[in-house]
Amino acid sequence: MSPPPGWWSFTSPAHKGHPALTQFPSPPDSRSKSTDDIDLAQVFAVLRRQALPLLLAPVLVGGATYALFQRQAPTYEAVTSVMAAQNDNSNSVLNSASVTAPQLPQGAVEEVVHSRQSVERMIALLKTAKIPDQVKAAISQQLNNELASDKFSRVTVKARLDTQQRGVYELRASAESPEAARVLATAATQALLDWDMGRARTGVGRARKNLQEQLKNISTRLAAVPAGSVEAQSLIAARGQLILNLSQATVFEEGAVGNLTLLAEANAPRSPVAPKPARNAVLAALLTLFAGAGLALLLDSLRRRVRSTADIIALDVPAIGELPRMARGRRAETATAATAGVLYEPTGFIRVNLSTAVPQTPALFAVSSARPGEGKSTVVAAVAESYALAGKRVLVIDLDVHRPTQQEFWTVGGRPWVPLPGAEAGHQTTVVQAIEHPTLASAIDVGRGIHLLLAGEVGRRAASLLNTPGLPELLRQWATGYDVVLIDTPPLLSVADAFVIAPHTDGLVLVVESNETSVPEVQRVLQGARTSQVKLLGIVVNKVRRGQQGYGYSYSYAQGN
Predict the structure, then answer these.
(1) Parent domain of 64
(2) pTM above 0.85, yes or no
(3) Quick check: is 26 in a domain?
(4) Which helix (H) or strand (E) holds 23?
C-alpha cells in the first residue's frame, strides 16, 4: 500500500539484517509538540493507574489524624474587649499634667499584656479565682514559660483601630475548661486596665509631689523671715495657694482615668475551639491526596515514554506503524474499524511493512507487548483483518494462556470448525488440546478467510505446554495451510513464554502503548530479544492520541481534490 497523496515517506536503513521498512514519520514539529504540551489525558491516565494508593493514603492519614486529635484535651477560648477612645485632658493647676492616660501607640497593648508586670498580675489574680488548683498551676506555669521564651499563645491580642489609634482591642485567653478560660481572660483584661490606670495616675502624682516640694520650700523660707513683714505676707499668700493646689491635685489623682475602657466582659465559652478532629482529618487527607498526586505525576514525568514512532526510531529499531486510540470496551468493532474505519489505513501500513520484512509465504509472526494492557491482541485482530482484506488466508493463534482475549474480537458462536493441516475432520478444540492431540487440531472459521485457534484452558499446565519440544514443528505444519499466521503471545516482561515461541517464527512484532510504555521497558525487551536470539521485526505504537500520530492514517481522500 502506497502512502496517500499529501504525505511523504522514506525508506529507513535495514536493521540487523532485516529488509528496509517503509516509514511514515510525523511532521518535524509534532514530536516537540507532544512532549512539551501538557496532556490532560495522560495526567488522568497516571492518576487512574495510581488510584488505589492515591485514595488509600488519604483515608489512612485522615483516620490517623482524627484519632490523634480526638485524644487531645479540649481547649476553650474566652474573649473580652476594651475600647481606646478618650482624649488627653490636662489641668493648668497641675502644670499641664494629664489627668487622662495618653493615647497608646500601635502595638503597645500587646507588649503590655505580655510584659512581666502583667503576667505576674494575671498569676496573682488567678490565685484568688474559683478554679481547680491544678488548673491554676498549669496556667501559671505556661504563662511563665511563655514569658521566658517570648512566645505567647495563652493570651493573645487583636486590635481593630483607626488611624488615630482609637478602636477596640480583643483579648483572647485559652484554657482547659470554659471557666478557666473566662477567668484568665478577665485577669488579663484587669491587668491591662490596672496598668493603664497606673500610667494615668503617674503624671498627676508627679505634679502633686512637685507641689509638696514647693510647699515645703515656702514653709522653710517663711520661718526665716520676720513675722508681719511684706515678704512674710507674700509667702503666706503663696503657701495658701499651694495648699489649695495640693488639695486639688489629690482629688485629681484619685479621679484620674486611663485611656482604655472595658467594653465587653468575658463569658465562659460553650464549645471548645480545639482540637477539631474532623476538620484536621479532612485537611490532612486533602493534603495527602494533593501531595500523592503531585508525587505520582512527578515520578511519571521522570520516566521517558514512547509517544510516537519518532521515539522508536531514536532507539534504532524499525517502526512498523501506529494505531490510534479506540474507545474502551469496543473490541467487537475492531474488524469493522480495520476494514473500513479508522484502522484501515494504519493496519494497511503495518501489513505492507510486515510483508516487506518477511516476503515469503507462509509468514509466521509472534506478536507481544512489554506489559499487559498495551493492546497486542487488538493489533493481532486488526492486522489479521487487513491481511484478509488483501486476499490472504490468515490463521490467528491465541497462545496467551494467561489472559486470553482473542475470543472477544470475533463472532465465534455458531461458526464452523475446520481442521488444521495434519488433522482429521474438524473438532471443537482449543490450542491446549491441539498441542496435546495434533490430529484433532481445529480452528474456528470466523469468515473472510480468517481462522481462529482459541487458547481455552488457562493456568500453569497450559503454559507448560508451550515448552513442548514438538511445538515449533507443529506451528510450521499448521502454517502450511495459510499465507500468514499471527500468534498472540503473553507480555514479554511478565512471563517468558513469548521468548520461547518467537525464535521459532519469522520474527517478533512488539506492541507498545503510546504515553504509557517507558523507553527503559522497551530497552529491557530489546535486551531480552538479543539474549534469546529473537528476530525483532519492529515495533507497533498503539493507542496514539490525535496530534501524536506519526503518519497519515487520518488522511481524508478529499485532501487530494
Answers:
(1) 40-70+276-302
(2) no
(3) no
(4) strand 22-23
